[in-house]
Design a protein that fits this description.
Blueprint (H helix, E strand, L loop, with lengths): L2 H33 L6 E12 L3 E12 L5 E14 L2 E13 L2 E12 L3 H10 L3 E12 L4 E12 L12 E3 L11 E10 L6 E12 L5 E12 L2 E7 L4 E3 L3 E12 L3 H9 L8 E13 L5 E5 L5 E6 L23 E4 L3 E3 L51
Parallel strand pairs: 7-18
Antiparallel strand pairs: 1-2, 2-5, 3-4, 3-6, 6-7, 8-9, 9-10, 10-14, 11-12, 11-13, 11-15, 15-16, 15-17, 17-19
């Protein structure tokens, strides 16, 4: 055998051995997957944040972490990943990718989807109907294309708000007409109450009630109460009552009426809620202003701004827990599907009047015609003072 033939035979045998080794290794790895000796890749975490927001769409940026428990990376056939994000079972985002190449350990897959802002009103309706609570559900799956099976991941956050809680108040506030026809205050509002009505697809009603006291010797008629509602400056609704009330002398009367948010404006509000330049990221200022039309005994009518009854509330949400890990924990054996739950309640700031101060009903008139500082008669005739709320609350912050 010539030297060149010997070299060719040696090289050929090495190539055959190497090829045989690759085939054996490939078969071993494939067999190991088939037999379950090597693990199936799974989703270890799904981190969502809000991206760019337009009048029509909201960008949702997703970092989906795929965990490969095997000592070798997975290429070629790769891994398929899919995920959905829902709020109160209303799907707001869905995405995925096929043929993902992952190395050993954790690999991050960047995905981007868009929420249509027109989905915000249906979610809002579900949020109010559910007692101002939202369940945010994230469902994800990593599937090995080689094995044709995958592992599910699920995670839930609870989002909770309290928009009307601070409106319920026993604080006494004067109603000043600033009119030469009568001396102020012409009335007192001793109590305010508010609760959600029956929400529809088109509007979100708020059932309100004012307990009004007339300290004068003549009856007054409240012929109309009007309101304007804004959220981050977006006009959400306005209107007025259709029924009048007569407040007898030295007596109280409960004035009931309904205000309403017009749901068609919610997608416009949503854009401002996510805009850091408005009030901060995921921050909203709710404001309800009132006025009353009062008819005096002589028939004169005066429109009175109810400035001391202006209701302001700051709503802060953290829908995705941005900046927080939503991983299922370092112990992957904690549950079969890697499910995890995290509380993501929002915060609200307590409502205050325009000047931020409480009023105490100073110079209120009692039932015998005299006056006494810091008290008003509630119409019961027992001489007990009508104490006012000191305005202290929990700053409107709900525990997370």
């Amino acid at each position: 055998m010539s030297p060149s033939d010997a070299v060719s035979a040696l090289v050929g045998s090495k190539l055959r051995i190497a090829l045989l080794g690759v085939l054996v290794l490939g078969g071993a790895v494939g067999g190991a997957f088939t037999l379950g000796i090597l693990g199936v890749p799974s989703v270890a975490a799904v981190d969502n944040t809000f991206g760019n927001v337009t009048n029509e769409t909201t960008e949702i940026e997703t970092d989906l972490v795929v965990s490969n428990p095997n000592p070798v990376g997975i290429g070629l056939d790769g891994v398929s990943v899919n995920y959905t994000v829902s709020m109160n079972d209303i799907e707001i985002a869905q995405g995925g990718r096929e043929g993902v190449r992952v190395g050993t350990g954790n690999s991050t897959v960047d995905l981007e989807t868009h929420l249509r802002n027109e989905e915000i009103p249906p979610w809002w309706v579900s949020h109010v109907r559910n007692g101002e609570r939202t369940a945010l559900d994230i469902e994800a799956t990593a599937t090995s294309d080689r094995l044709g099976r995958g592992v599910d991941f699920s995670q839930r956050r609870e989002i909770e708000t309290d928009l009307l809680g601070a409106f319920n108040s026993d604080e006494t506030r004067p109603v000043n007409a600033d009119s030469p026809l009568m001396s102020d205050p012409v009335l007192y509002v001793n109590e305010t109450r508010g609760e959600w009505g029956t929400v529809s697809e088109s509007e979100t009603p708020i059932e309100m009630a004012f307990t009004v006291y007339n300290p004068n010797i003549e009856p007054y008629a409240v012929t109309e109460i009007g309101y304007d509602i804004t959220m981050n400056g977006v006009e959400m609704g306005s209107g007025q009552t259709e029924e009048g009330y007569v407040i007898p002398s030295h007596s109280t009367e409960t004035v009931e009426f309904t205000t309403a948010l017009q749901n068609r404006h919610l997608d416009d509000w949503w854009v401002t809620h996510l805009d850091e330049d408005v009030r901060g990221h995921q921050v909203t200022g709710l404001r309800i202003e009132f006025y009353a039309v009062i008819e005096f005994p002589g028939g004169e009518e005066v429109t009175v701004p109810l400035d001391d009854l202006t209701y302001e509330e700051t709503i802060e949400t953290d829908i995705f827990g941005e900046g927080d890990d939503v991983r299922d924990g370092s112990d992957s054996s904690g549950s079969e599907d890697g499910s995890n739950s995290e509380d993501g309640r929002s915060e609200t700031d307590g409502g205050t009047s325009d000047d931020g101060n409480t009023t105490d009903g100073e110079n209120g008139t009692d039932s015998d015609g005299g006056t006494s500082e810091n008290e008003t008669d509630d119409g019961s005739g027992d001489g007990t003072e009508n104490e006012t709320d000191d305005g202290d609350d929990d700053d409107g912050v709900l525990p997370l």
